[in-house]
Design goal:
By secondary structure, the protein is α/β, with parallel strands linked by helices. The chain has ten helices and eleven strands.
């Protein structure tokens, strides 16, 4: 477990175009120098106007593992994803993605970094007037030189991989919540990213759908060794799937293996996780 300093609380088409230690190893490595980390924040301070989100926050997300970011509302969970994607820049500090500091990069430089990223948006963020096939084909049409037949083959294969191969001609509004999330996941992985960012993938889903999405994310991680960084407030799924947890606790943050944090000496972290395990089984 590591305690970290933290003293404070597109259009889709355009985005496509732009866009493990043990308990006795408690230490605070310099994020930039830790080569096991696929993504790292190094002494990042971030504010929105007068509201501080992070101050001097350092944390890391291991390559090829599933990391989950937990915290209360307004703690900055989704801000971490925006920083990683280069959609916003910190006031100070560095954001390292696959060895490259994305802060201060030109738009061309950010484009090259974003090619490595997939994004599962909260709520899916599919284009309502496009059917499922067209939603998945769009990033391939804009960012690859694949032929129409190659794109069609890739779209159908990716839909099959997430278990919704029979919905290609449907509009997003015709899908159930769980099916919509699986289609959004298919679109997020269709360009074969090495890093997958997931913003609240379980929000609004029933318990059965939560476990299906959870199983898909774990299968994708294991099959393709993709680094997953998941923002969530669903503690039970976190305890089942996460290799590492970053827990944002207002003026500070801690990170470590989920069971270490739940059973460890940090009372606030343990209470957050233990209370979360008792949440009702219904919709979030």
């Amino acid at each position: 477990m590591q305690t970290l300093v933290n003293n404070g609380p597109v259009m889709l088409k355009g985005l496509f175009s732009r866009l493990t230690g043990s308990a006795d190893e408690i230490r605070r490595p310099h994020a930039r120098l830790d080569k096991t980390m696929h993504v790292a924040l190094d002494h990042v301070s971030m504010s929105y106007g007068e509201r501080k989100v992070f101050e001097n926050l350092s944390c890391g997300f291991p390559r090829g593992r599933i990391s989950v970011i937990l915290g209360g509302s307004g703690s900055g969970k989704s801000t971490v994803l925006r920083l990683i994607g280069g959609l916003i820049s910190p006031q100070t500090g560095s954001v390292i993605v696959d060895g490259q500091d994305v802060t201060g990069l030109s738009e061309r430089g950010l484009y090259n970094v974003r090619k490595k990223l997939g994004m599962l948006f909260q709520g899916g963020a599919l284009l309502d007037s496009y059917n499922v096939f067209e939603n998945l084909a769009l990033p391939l049409q804009e960012q690859s030189r694949m032929s129409r037949s190659e794109i069609a083959q890739e779209v159908h294969a990716t839909l099959k991989a997430v278990g919704v191969e029979d919905v290609a001609e449907l509009l997003p509004g015709q899908l159930s919540g769980g099916m919509l999330r699986r289609v959004a996941l298919a679109r997020a992985i269709i360009r074969k990213p090495t890093i997958l960012l997931c913003d609240e993938p379980f929000s609004g889903l029933d318990p059965v759908s939560i476990k299906r999405i959870e199983a898909l994310l774990m299968a994708i991680n294991q099959k393709h060794t993709i680094t997953l960084i998941v923002v969530s407030h669903h503690v039970p799924s976190t305890m089942r799937m996460a290799d590492r947890v970053l827990l944002l606790l207002g003026k500070r943050a801690v990170e470590g293996r989920p069971e270490e944090l739940r059973r460890g000496p940090d009372k606030e972290a343990a209470e957050f996780l233990n209370d979360g395990m008792e949440q009702p089984a219904g919709r979030e």
